[in-house]
Each structure stands twice: as C-alpha cells, then as structure tokens.
C-alpha cells in the first residue's frame, strides 16, 4: 500500500523518525535564509560559508573528538570569524565582500582538511564532510530544533530591516548613521544554520537544502512571503523523499535528500510560471 510505503520506515524505526524531525527542522530554518540570499544576490555565499566553518569543526574534532558541542562551537566561531574578516577587508580595501569571502573560504577549506588529516582517519573526514542524518541523536535533534526556532524568531524580528537592506542598503545605512550591520548579522545567522546542519548533511551537502528550494521558489512566486513559505515546504518534501529513497534504495541519506531537492528544482525549471515551458508558450504567442 502507498501509505505503508510512505509511513512504514518511520513507524518501524526510531532512527528514521529522528532523521525526519531533523530534516523538517532544518527545512523550516534554512530554506528561508536561502531565499534571502538569492534576493541579495549572494547565492554562492552560502556555499562559501559552509566551507568556512570547517577549520573550527576540525579543531573541535582534534581536541574533543566527535563531540557535538565542541564541533558546533568551533564551527560557529570559525564561520563568524570569516564573516567579520571579510567585512573588514571589504571596508578597508577595494574588494567586494563576496570576493573576500570567496578568498577566505578557499583557505579555510584547505586548512580544515589539513587539520582533520593530521588527527583523524578518512572515515572521520567523510563524516564531517557528508554527515549522517540517520545517526542523529537526541542532542543533535535539540540543536537543530533550537537553531530553527531561533532563526524563525530572528527573521521575524529583522524582516523589515533585511527587506530594506536587500533593496536599498544605502538608505538603511544613512538612517542608521553608517553601516547598518544587517549584512553581518544575516550572514552569522546563515553560519549558525550551516553548523546545525553539518552533523546531518555534512558541510558539503548542508547548503543544498538551503539554496535549491529557495531558487525553485523564485520561479513560482513573485512575492517574498510566498517564496519563504514555498521554499520551506519544498525543502521538507525533498527531505521526506530523500529519506525514503535512501531507505528503499540503500543509498547515502544526505546526497539522496539533495538529489531529490535537485529533481524538484528541475521540475520547477520546466513547469513553473517563470520556467522554460511557460517562456516558450509566451514566445509563440
């Protein structure tokens, strides 16, 4: 029965239920951030920051092993350090902030891999880079749920300022008497969500659940509120489909989730009001 195929793994296995809750929480918090990244034309910054946290994660691993608290604190500190250094570089040198982030994340990625290689094994490196959503424990669930809740509350509180800063940052900065700081606060929020996601999806896969549903949402809707809701719903659908695919096909869970998100993005490219088929119909008429 279709219902048994959909619900059976989650009814039978506790680790599947924990994985589903973790993915749904990540979708609620991360996907709206992806929408705002695309709105601010910073789509690739999410990928850069997902790599920038690696040195902090590596240091936490070297000193404390696979301790969730140590890995999370190290990743957050490393990501925030990269954001602050990039802001300082762009302010005092003729380099855009996204360019300075690109330069810093490459160095951070190489440094993180080197640090992990000094102390760990290939299995440890793969765990950090690709995660293991099926191995999420109670502490991991608490972290993901807390970050998602805090993200939604902060986005609600910062919504108007983020919206103005996205379309007219000069106006907002003038009203604040200088740099408004919304850019840095927003990027730090992205860092925290990527760190929360690294245990489940890994540092290389975490950004996929943030960006693919967000890009798809922009193809379906013109209003920001609709894009925020759509991105979260699509990310949750990709998470559910990816977990079922990994269960029945015996595939890695993280990549399966991102592949499903990619398939939904491909469908949006074809079928959405701003997709390829709609564009062809308008061109013919």
Characterise this structure.
The protein is mainly α. The protein is built from 13 helices and no strands. It is globular and about 60 Å long.
Element order: H for helix, E for strand: HHHHHHHHHHHHH
Distance between the termini: 44 Å
Bin the helical content.
over 70%
User: Main β-sheet, in a few words?
Assistant: none
General shape: globular
Question: Unreliable segments (pLDDT under 50, ≥5 consecutive)?
Answer: none
Structural class: mainly alpha
Quick recap:
By secondary structure, the protein is mainly alpha-helical. The protein has helices at residues 2-12, 14-39, 43-52, 54-64, 68-92, 97-119, 122-130, 138-167, 169-175, 182-220, 224-249, 253-271, 276-284. The model has no long low-confidence stretch (mean pLDDT 83).
Give the helix/strand layout.
Layout: H1 2-12, H2 14-39, H3 43-52, H4 54-64, H5 68-92, H6 97-119, H7 122-130, H8 138-167, H9 169-175, H10 182-220, H11 224-249, H12 253-271, H13 276-284
Which structural traits does this protein have?
0% strand; mainly alpha
């Amino acid at each position: 029965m279709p219902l048994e195929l959909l619900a059976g793994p989650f009814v039978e296995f506790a680790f599947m239920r924990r994985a589903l809750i973790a993915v749904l929480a990540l979708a609620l918090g991360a996907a709206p951030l992806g929408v705002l990244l695309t709105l601010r034309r910073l789509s690739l910054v999410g990928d850069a920051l997902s790599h920038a946290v690696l040195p902090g994660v590596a240091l936490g691993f070297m000193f404390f092993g696979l301790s969730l608290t140590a890995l999370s604190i190290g990743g957050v500190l490393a990501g925030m350090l990269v954001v602050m250094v990039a802001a300082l570089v762009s302010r005092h040198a003729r380099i855009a902030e996204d360019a300075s982030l690109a330069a810093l994340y490459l160095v951070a990625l190489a440094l993180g891999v080197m640090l992990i290689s000094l102390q760990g094994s290939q299995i440890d490196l793969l765990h950090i880079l690709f995660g293991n959503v099926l191995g999420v424990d109670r502490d991991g669930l608490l972290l993901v749920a807390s970050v998602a809740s805090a993200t939604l509350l902060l986005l609600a509180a910062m919504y108007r300022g983020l919206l103005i800063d996205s379309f007219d940052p000069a106006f907002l900065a003038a009203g604040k008497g200088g740099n408004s700081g919304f850019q840095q606060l927003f990027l730090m929020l992205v860092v925290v969500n990527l760190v929360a996601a690294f245990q489940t999806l890994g540092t290389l896969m975490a950004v996929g659940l943030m960006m693919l549903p967000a890009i798809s949402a922009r193809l379906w809707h013109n209003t920001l509120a609709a894009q925020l809701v759509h991105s979260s719903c699509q990310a949750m659908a990709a998470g559910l489909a990816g977990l079922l695919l990994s269960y029945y096909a015996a595939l890695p869970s993280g990549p399966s989730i991102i592949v499903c998100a990619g398939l939904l993005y491909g469908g949006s490219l074809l079928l959405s009001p701003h997709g390829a088929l709609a564009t062809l119909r308008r061109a013919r008429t």
